[in-house]
Amino acid sequence: MFSKIIIASERTPVANNILNYIASLRNSGMKECLLVQCLNPYETNVNITAYYASLFEENLERQKAILEEAGYQVETRIVSGLMKNEINQIAVDEDFDLIVVAAEEHFINGEIFSGGIAHEVIHKAGKPVLIVRLSDDTCERINRTKECGISSHILFPTDFSDNAKLAYGYVKELAEKSAKNVTIVHIQDHSKSLAHRIKGLEGVDKQKLEKFKNQLRFDTMDEEKLQELKQEVLLNKVNEERLAALKEEISGNAEVNVDLFFGSPTREILRLIKELKIPLVVMGSQGKGYIKEVFLGSVSHNIIEHSTASILLIPANREEV
């Protein structure tokens, strides 16, 4: 599935933990990796550029040794340019299977926020991206057992879009090879109802605002409303059947659970990650419904920024975007 990977190398305090994490994935079929670091293309001082290049070379050699010890075939490369552009271009041009980036974590009022290279790379990714986020427990497990436990429980949120189908293919492979538990969920987004949209209508004219408000004022269940409820019940049934069908497609020894939830996709996904102690979320980067907003709106940013789990993002086919 991912035999050839490209890694955004960094000189950060968590770099070694990330490399140990990648080293622990060697038995999952990963064989070749390229470590990439980027020099600032706007730096005009030759001496400064040479100094940083020397530091990068030393850093890459240390990182290369860690991965070679785990059995990888490793190459290193220093390129001039921005990481978000260079790593994506190399990944596509040289047909890498996976881009690996670390999620930088910042804590504000006790909550996790992440950014840095990960956010830059995913916006232009033409290949699957693994955003690695490691808890203290995971780091301790890797140091103790050389296993990261990434496949102990996989969460797959789906909106049944074409991109979600692509992502599901990776879920099936993970389930067949190494996953112990897989949870497949669909969240019916009630935030898209009219009542939840009124607060965002300040920018429209008063006539449209009144029209929306009037639509909210109903004292009795008219025929139209009954039909809407009927359609929602039918949709729920269809979604339940879709989830059941996805469950049946998975082979291997993994225990598979499916769930249908109602509410905010962001809140529900983050709740499940926390409650189920999910180490890996697999999802499509584009689609319909809430997944369409991945990297484009608040849902995606909240999931990426607040998730305590690593995230495997599968990009949509270019012709579908």
UniProtKB/TrEMBL annotation:
| Domain UspA as annotated: residue spans | 1-133, 153-315
Q: Which domain of life is it from?
A: Bacteria
**Transmembrane region positions?**
none
InterPro entries linked to this entry: Rossmann-like_a/b/a_fold, Universal_stress_UspA, UspA
As for family, the record states: Belongs to the universal stress protein A family.
Name of the protein in question: UspA domain-containing protein
